[in-house]
Amino acid sequence: MLSNLNKIPNGYSEGIYSDKKYGLSKTIFNNGKSFKIFGEELGGSDFISLNYYITKEKGLIKPCEMTVQKVVHFLENVIILEED
After folding, report:
1. Which of 8, 45, 63, 64 has its CA 20 to 30 A from that of 27?
2. How many CB atoms sit inside 10 A of residue 58's CB?
3. Domain limits of the chain?
4. What is the pTM of this model?
5. Among 55, 60, 10, 57, which Cα is nearest to 37's?
């Protein structure tokens, strides 16, 4: 899961998911021990929102108002667009 989170750069980026363009915002907290990611479909109504925490035992994914499956599928399949 962490490798999928790390492919999204810190700050603002854009990506393609299910043939739709998303604006993504990633913020890193606690010296890299937690992340907040929010993405919204540009020109549409879909969104992704999650927090991820790295503990001593494991990583914890905490979706906001959606299923874990939706968040995991998004993270596994979003293609990050390179900046011009």
Report:
1. 45
2. 8
3. 2-80
4. 0.91
5. 10
